[in-house]
Every structure is written in structure tokens, then in C-alpha cells.
UniProtKB/TrEMBL annotation, chain A:
Belongs to the ABC-4 integral membrane protein family. The lineage of its organism: Bacteria, Bacillati, Bacillota, Clostridia, Thermosediminibacterales. It comes from Thermosediminibacter litoriperuensis. InterPro entries: ABC3_permease_C, MacB_PCD, Macrolide_Exporter_MacB. Residues 319-430 form the ABC3 transporter permease C-terminal domain. It is found in: Cell membrane. Residues 247-256 have a biased composition (Low complexity). Keywords: Cell membrane, Membrane, Transmembrane, Transmembrane helix. This is Putative ABC transport system permease protein.
UniProtKB/TrEMBL annotation, chain B:
PANTHER family: ABC TRANSPORTER ABCH.1, IMPORT ATP-BINDING PROTEIN. SMART domains: AAA. GO terms for cellular component: membrane protein complex; plasma membrane. Residues 4-226 form the ABC transporter domain. This is Putative ABC transport system ATP-binding protein. InterPro entries: AAA+_ATPase, ABC_transporter-like_ATP-bd, ABC_transporter-like_CS, ABC_transpr_LolD-like, MacB-like_ATP-bd, P-loop_NTPase. It comes from the Bacteria. Keywords: ATP-binding, Nucleotide-binding, Transport. Transmembrane segments: none annotated. The lineage of its organism: Bacteria, Bacillati, Bacillota, Clostridia, Thermosediminibacterales. GO terms for molecular function: ATP binding; ATP hydrolysis activity; transmembrane transporter activity.
Length: 436, 228
């Protein structure tokens, strides 16, 4: 009863001076809105990067040769799945390009040669048709699966499956079209043509491939597989622990212990197996700064990018939090003014029987109303701001966590900065309050 | 037993090194249903005395017994409760809250008492009727004349159904004709409802509405005089 009334009285205190209340709320609202929108931008940037990496497929390990002499036999891909535990799919990869002719149009296109494991390996789906089969690969069949943009462009949206295109003069049957991944996602797969690696090797005129992709069953399996793959290729290059001494071929020593292009695990000689100090100096390959084979776990790329963006989000949030704090101080300021201005009112209420706790509650609730409404308005503005950012090309998302934190901090400020003025109000002796 | 009994009440303030004696050694008894006026020049301690009787201020020494209770040592919350249940205040400057209408102002004490809305409305309507303001229930103070505002203040006190009404120069801000209607209202409430009234004034004409006049000078009771 008393509480409901206190709530009404406090509301009255807010409503009786709309301009002042409005300005106070504005301070809080700006704080809340900036926390929500800035955190939204940070979070949006993070998600965009994460999504981009995720579009590459999960638990994928990329093995890449950077030297022609270290390139792989295509059969190695299958062997790896058998030898390394936890691996499920594998594909040799050949990248090349060709002149495509479609009816009377012609143009240069990127070709990706892969095995029939490709859709499962890189988490691709098809919008129409089917992917080519192991049999197609074996037969070096002239079949092609189109990236979404190419596929959609040929017949103005109708499925081109069953039609033919020519690549470098050879006729290919279109068997499927991949689902859209989005601009810049999945290494730009939307604009590529995917054919069996055997066929692609023929176009490129090569007998080896410079890339092998494998997919592990889980993130944990990927971590374990990386170590095992590292051992396999170290041995293959003659960098095995038992035979650490370079024997001639440049590719066997051209390892740096440093970072590869990604954050994966470059195959590297451990420093331990070369105990003799001159040994270190006598490996000029170390200074070349070039890896012969890199093994990269795409999962770790995601994690790194995620971590970096998290820091940025926190930083933005911190800046916004300062403005929220300033808004809270505004409440304190206005409440202190209100207490001074309304000493007479406090006196009358005390004379009529209000206890100190009644006044404490009234002024505290008033501060809470201001911060609460400010928080509500700020949330609305923040959400609106996120929408605006999105419309003008900035990826921003509404982070529920940011909303929660901002609103709680705003209410907390109201409560915290309302306590002192409310206490002051309640502590004025009634006689003195009435005299003013 | 008198409703109010003051024994040797003193009140002093410290102002830097100077101690100001506002009241010294006041003995006063007011019976139930009495209408007492306190008079005296400004600075004689009239208001201080009224504040102490109204439990708005505490005496520096002496005993104050209100309706059989020793009041001077009660807690702040207890004093709030006593003001709320026993005492209605009428001030010179009305002391109405500007944002509330007549109803809102008059129901304030009942709200702090925890009376339910329906009962509150009923009692406030009755009180406003008793002071002749039935048609001004939803007017705010700024829409009322001085006399009407003072009558809202009296209705606020009446709604409390108090034992005691304390009035501090209730006609001080009003013209003499309006002042007299307010005084008539007090006399009526005192006569018909038996409410004890203690009023501070420096106007002799107004003081004569009461039964007894207590004259203060320099914080002491100089003399008492029965009216009529």
C-alpha cells in the first residue's frame, strides 16, 4: 500500500517537471544506446569474420606445398585418411583457369579440381543437380558443378543442369549447381567452376597437386591429426628426428620454425635434434623465411580472428560505458537539485506523517524511474541504431548481452546515484524543512 | 487528565558560540476540546512552542506528555506516526503541494497512514464538504484563492480525524474578511466536533475566537487570559 503510493508519488515527481526529467533521461539513454550500438558493431564485425571462416568448412586441415619439388601425388589424399586416425574426407586440389564458352559468350573462369568428397569436406550443398561421383573422377569425366553465381547467370535463374559448356574447347556436362555462400565467403566459391581433379590436372598439364584438403571428425580430432600429419611430412621431407641433418635437396631444409601464412603448423625441424651449435648456422634454409609445406587447421584461424575482434568489442563497450556512467552522474546531479528545491515539500510530507523511509523510497524510486525510462529509450534508440548501421553497410548485430549489461548498469547507476540524494532528503529535520 | 501537558520545557539553539534560548521553563496544560491561542511579539518563541507541541521539533529539556504518552524521547518514526494519527497542521502559507489537486493534497496523511483508496476518498470528500469546497475537489492550489487554499489545508487536517489541530498564523496571509471565515470554521469544528485547537497569532481580534490566550515574551509565559 505504502509502496504503491510511494511509486505514484515518485512518478509524480518525474512528471511534474517534464523538461528536466527528459534531459536527465536523455543522458542515460545516450549511454545505453551507445553501449548497445557500439557493442553491436564490434559483435557484428566479429561474427562477420567468424562466419567467413566458418564458410570454409569446419575441422578442415589444408596441406599446401610451396615448392614444386614437394608437391603431392593425388593418391596421397586417400592414403592420409587411412593412415591418420580421425580423418574422414580428403581431396587433392588443383587450381587453374580456363576460357569458358557458353552459347555465344566467352570468358575466363577459375577452375577448382577436387575429389567427390568436396561437398562434405567444405560443407557445401547443391541447389540443383548432383555432385560428381568417384567414378567421374576416375574416368576424368568432363563434368562440371557450377558455383552459384555462374550457375544462376547462365539461364537467368533457371537450372542449367544437363546443359553443356566448353572449357578450353572441351565440352563439359553441367551436373549440379552449388548453394550460394555469399560474397567473399568460402574462398569465393560462388564464382568458380568445380570439376574432378583428374580432369583439372589434364587442363593444367600437371601430374602432381600442390594442395590436399582433409576433414577431421571433430575439432579435437583435427588437433590430433595436425600433429600426426606434421610427423608424416617431416619424415617425408627427411626432417625426421632420426635424420635431422640436411642431405642436399633444398626442399629438405627450407623450413622455418616461424609462422606459416596462417596460424597452422608449418612443418618444422625441432631445434632439439640439432644440438651442435654450428649446425644451426649451417642450415641456410632457415634464413630463407619460406616454408616448403604448411599444414593449417582452419579452426584455429577462426579462433584467432574471434579473439582479436572480442578485444575490439570490449574496447568499444568500454568507451560507451563511460558515457553511461556520465548519464548516471546526471541522475545524481538532478536528484540533488530536486532535493534542495523540494525541501518545502519534504517538510510538508514529514509534518503529515511521512517517515524517513517513505521519503527515502520516494526519491530512490524517482531516480530509478529516470534511469529505467532512460534505459528503455536508450535500448530503443540502440536497436534502431543497429538497424541504421546495417542499412548503411556496417555489419552490426544486437547482442543480447550488451542490452542486458547496459540496462542493468543504467538501473544500477540510478540506484547508486539516487541513494545519496534520497538519504539527504530523508535526513532533513521536519522543522528545518518546513522553514524553507 | 489534560490532552497536552508541558513541564519545564526548554529549547535552545547553538549558533556558533552563542546559545539562543528560544523557550525556557514552559509549563502548560491544554485540556481536551479546548481552543487555546498563543500570542506574543515575533521572536517570543510562539512557533518554536507550536513545533514542539506538534512533534516537529524536540525540546532541549523538560517533559512533554501528549494524551498520556511521554513524547520527547520517542524515535523519529514514532513521532511521524503520532503526527499522522493525532495532529492536524494548518500553516500560514498553507503548505499545499502544488502538483496535486485538493483531493490529492487532503488525502496525503491518510495515504501515509495506509488507509485504502475508497475509504480515503470518502473521508476526504466529507472533509472538503465540511469546509465548503465540494465543488473544488479537482482544482490545483494555483487555481484556488488564498482562503480556499487554507480551507483545503483545514480539510486535509480534518480528514485525519485528529485530536488536535495546530494552526500557525492561519490567517496571516489572508485578508481580514476571509480570515474571519476561517476563524469561524475553526470555532465550529471546535464546538461541534470537540477538536482541540491550539493557534498561534499576533492578531488580537483573531485570538479572541479562542477560550484562552497564552501570552509569550522572550521564551517565557508572561500571562494567561480567559476570553469572554
Amino acid at each position: 500500500m505504502r509502496f504503491i503510493f510511494g511509486a505514484q508519488m515518485a512518478w509524480h515527481g518525474v512528471a511534474v517537471n517534464p523538461l528536466r526529467s527528459g534531459l536527465t533521461m536523455l543522458g542515460v539513454a545516450i549511454g545505453v544506446a551507445s553501449v548497445i550500438s557500439l557493442m553491436g558493431i564490434g559483435e557484428g564485425a566479429r561474427l562477420a569474420v567468424v562466419r567467413q571462416f566458418e564458410s570454409l568448412g569446419s575441422n578442415v586441415i589444408v596441406i599446401k606445398a610451396h615448392d614444386a619439388k614437394a608437391e603431392f601425388q593425388p593418391e596421397e589424399a586417400r592414403e592420409l585418411v587411412e593412415r591418420v586416425s580421425g580423418l574422414r574426407y580428403a581431396s587433392p586440389v588443383t587450381r587453374t583457369n580456363a576460357v569458358m564458352k557458353w552459347r555465344r559468350a566467352r570468358g575466363q573462369v577459375d577452375i577448382l579440381g577436387v575429389s567427390s568428397d568436396f561437398p562434405q569436406l567444405r560443407d557445401h550443398k547443391l541447389v540443383s543437380g548432383r555432385f560428381f561421383t568417384p567414378w567421374h573422377v576416375e574416368q576424368r569425366s568432363p563434368v562440371a558443378v557450377l558455383g552459384y553465381n555462374i550457375g544462376a547467370g547462365l539461364l537467368g535463374g533457371r537450372s542449367p543442369v544437363g546443359q553443356t559448356v566448353t572449357l578450353n574447347g572441351q565440352t563439359f556436362r553441367i551436373v549440379g549447381v552449388l548453394e550460394k555462400k555469399g560474397e567473399g565467403q568460402g574462398e569465393g566459391i560462388d564464382d568458380k567452376i568445380i570439376i574432378p581433379y583428374t580432369t583439372a590436372m589434364k587442363i593444367a598439364g600437371k601430374r602432381t597437386v600442390d594442395e590436399i584438403w582433409v576433414k577431421a571428425e571433430s575439432a579435437k580430432a583435427a588437433d590430433l591429426a595436425i600433429a600426426q600429419l606434421g610427423r608424416i611430412y617431416r619424415r617425408k621431407l627427411g626432417l625426421d628426428n632420426k635424420a635431422p641433418v640436411p642431405t642436399g635437396g633444398e626442399q629438405k631444409q627450407g623450413e622455418t620454425p616461424g609462422e606459416g601464412p596462417g596460424t597452422g603448423k608449418p612443418v618444422e625441424p625441432k631445434p632439439a635434434p640439432a644440438p651442435e651449435t654450428p649446425g644451426k648456422d649451417s642450415t641456410p634454409g632457415l634464413e630463407l623465411g619460406k616454408d616448403i609445406i604448411t599444414i593449417t587447421n582452419l579452426n584455429t584461424l577462426v579462433e584467432e580472428a574471434d579473439k582479436a575482434n572480442r578485444v575490439m568489442t570490449l574496447l568499444l563497450g568500454g568507451i560507451a560505458a563511460v558515457s553511461l556512467l556520465v548519464g548516471g552522474l546526471g541522475i545524481m546531479n538532478i536528484m540533488l537539485v530536486a532535493v534542495t528545491e523540494r525541501t518545502g515539500e519534504i517538510g510538508v510530507r514529514r509534518a503529515l506523517g511521512a517517515k524517513r523511509s517513505d521519503l527515502l523510497m520516494q526519491f530512490l524510486l524517482e531516480a530509478l524511474y529516470l534511469s529505467g525510462m532512460g534505459a528503455a529509450a536508450g535500448t530503443a534508440a540502440g536497436l534502431w541504431g543497429v538497424g541504421i548501421f546495417n542499412r548503411y553497410g556496417l555489419t552490426a548485430v544486437v547482442s543480447l548481452e550488451a542490452v542486458k549489461v547496459a540496462v542493468l548498469v543504467a538501473l544500477g547507476c540510478g540506484l547508486l546515484f539516487g541513494v545519496y540524494p534520497a538519504w539527504t532528503a530523508a535526513s532533513v529535520p521536519p522543522v528545518e524543512a518546513l522553514r524553507r | 487528565m489534560p490532552l497536552i501537558e508541558l513541564r519545564g520545557i526548554t529549547r535552545w539553539y547553538r549558533n556558533g558560540r552563542v546559545v539562543i534560548n528560544a523557550l525556557s521553563d514552559i509549563d502548560l496544560a491544554v485540556g481536551k476540546g479546548e481552543f487555546v491561542t498563543i500570542m506574543g511579539p515575533s521572536g517570543s518563541g510562539k512557533s518554536t512552542l507550536l513545533n514542539i507541541i506538534g512533534c516537529l521539533d524536540r525540546p532541549s529539556g523538560g517533559e512533554y506528555i501528549l494524551d498520556g504518552m511521554r513524547v520527547e524521547r520517542l524515535s523519529d518514526d514514532k513521532l511521524s506516526e503520532i503526527r499522522n494519527r493525532y495532529i492536524g497542521f494548518v500553516f500560514q502559507s498553507f503548505h499545499l503541494l502544488p502538483g496535486l489537486d485538493a483531493m490529492g493534497n487532503a488525502e496525503l496523511p491518510l495515504i501515509y497512514r495506509g488507509v485504502g483508496a475508497a475509504e480515503r476518498r470518502r473521508r476526504v470528500r466529507q472533509a472538503l464538504e465540511a469546509v465548503g469546497l465540494s465543488d473544488r475537489i479537482h482544482h490545483k492550489p494555483s487555481e484556488l484563492s488564498g482562503g480556499e487554499q487554507q480551507r483545503v489545508a483545514i480539510a486535509r487536517a480534518l480528514a485525519q480525524e485528529p485530536l488536535l489541530i495546530l494552526a500557525d498564523e492561519p490567517t496571516g496571509a489572508l485578508d481580514s474578511k476571509t480570515g474571519r471565515t476561517i476563524m469561524e470554521l475553526f470555532r465550529k469544528l471546535n464546538a461541534e466536533r470537540g477538536i482541540t485547537i491550539i493557534m498561534v497569532t499576533h492578531d488580537r481580534d483573531m485570538a479572541r475566537y479562542g477560550h484562552r490566550i497564552v501570552k509569550l515574551l522572550d521564551g517565557r509565559i508572561k500571562e494567561e487570559e480567559l476570553v469572554g
